[in-house]
Design a protein that fits this description.
With 264 residues, the protein is α/β, with parallel strands linked by helices. It has one domain (9-263): NAD(P)-binding Rossmann-like Domain (Rossmann fold, 3-Layer(aba) Sandwich), CATH 3.40.50. The chain contains nine helices and seven strands, in the order βαβαβαβαβαβαααβα. Strands 3-2-1-4-5-6-7 form a seven-stranded parallel β-sheet, with helices on both faces. It is globular, with a radius of gyration of 18 Å. The chain starts with 8 loop residues before the first strand and ends with a helix. Bound molecules: nicotinamide-adenine-dinucleotide. Residues 14-16, 20-22, 41, 45, 64-67, 92-95, 119, 144-146, 189, 191-192, 194-197 line the site of nicotinamide-adenine-dinucleotide.
């Protein structure tokens, strides 16, 4: 097989099932010849990830819960032992207590604020640091964010605050690692029905609002996020770093609902 990712090896973190954004990205990368390793959070998800990995020709699966830093260390030890180097990583990990993904942001608890930040934001920095050590010939790192980082989206609450910090991390990491030829970017995806997406209260209404009001009048698919991510992870974007790239059918450029929506 030949393709723009031929000869490149990368780690995918965040596949839970075949609806996961990370799965859309994995398919796009594998179709272009990339060799992939996958992490999974716990044995139950591992059972789902294993056949998916096999579908894209991978038997390299590693358990990892980012709350446990020893498990993060161990995935990079395994990658060093098996591959010796790394060309790219995908961080598609987010979590917050769903009881706080509804109602007022002001009611966020200290415990959930901290946990959300560690899992959804700081884990990217911890992973980037370890991955950079293996990116001996430069590389590309990608995380996933959402427009709730800069705009108020109902119920997104503390996740929006974590995504704002995640996007700032992208810029700081891009500056840290740029001199070593390592690029760091984020895709800001529009709403998609996934396990994590379903945790946000009224997720269906938000999805439908986006479909009706985005310039392209549709929601995006994991395959569309996958092909844009392929660009950011490949040499096609060799001059791009520190970027937050929207893949949201254009919703982020709008300032008010469409006139059709208003008059219906
Ligand atoms: P998903 O549920 O398929 O993926 C979330 C992943 O995070 C899962 O694989 C889960 O195992 C992992 N995860 C959560 N806590 C973890 C932990 N402690 N350790 C290791 N892994 C952990 O949902 P998704 O929508 O594909 O989410 C992927 C990313 O995309 C998230 O960062 C999410 O915020 C972001 N995103 C999602 C949407 C959307 O509408 N679905 C939109 C924009 C951005």
């Amino acid at each position: 097989m030949t393709g723009i990712m031929q000869g490149k090896r990368g780690l995918i973190m965040g596949v839970a099932n075949n609806h996961s954004i990370a799965w859309g990205i994995s398919k796009a990368l594998a179709a272009e010849g990339a060799e992939l390793a996958f992490t999974y959070q716990g044995e139950a998800l591992g059972k789902r990830v294993k056949p998916l990995a096999a579908e894209v020709g991978s038997d390299f699966l590693l358990p990892c819960d980012v709350e446990d830093i020893a498990s993060v260390d161990s995935i990079f030890e395994e990658i060093r032992a098996r591959w010796g180097r790394l060309d790219f990583i995908v961080h598609a990990i987010g979590f917050s207590d769903k009881n706080e993904l509804k109602g007022l942001y002001a009611n966020t608890t200290r415990d959930n604020f901290t946990r959300t930040m560690v899992i959804s934001c700081f884990s990217f920095t911890e992973i980037a640091k370890r991955a950079a050590e293996l990116m001996v010939e430069g590389g590309s790192m990608l995380t996933l964010t959402y427009n709730g980082s800069t705009r108020v989206i109902p119920n997104y609450n503390v996740m929006g605050v974590a995504k704002a910090a995640l996007e700032a991390s992208v810029r700081y990491l891009a500056a840290d690692y740029g001199p070593r030829g390592i690029r760091v970017n984020a895709v800001s995806a529009g709403p998609i029905r996934t396990l994590a997406g379903a945790g946000i209260s009224d997720a269906r209404a938000i999805l439908s609002w986006n479909q009706r009001n985005a310039p392209l009048r549709k929601s995006v698919t994991i395959d569309q996020v996958g092909s844009s991510s392929l660009y950011l992870l490949s040499d096609l974007s060799a001059g791009v770093t520190g970027e937050i790239h929207f893949v949201d059918a254009g919703y982020n450029i709008t300032s008010m609902p469409t006139l059709e929506t208003l008059t219906k």
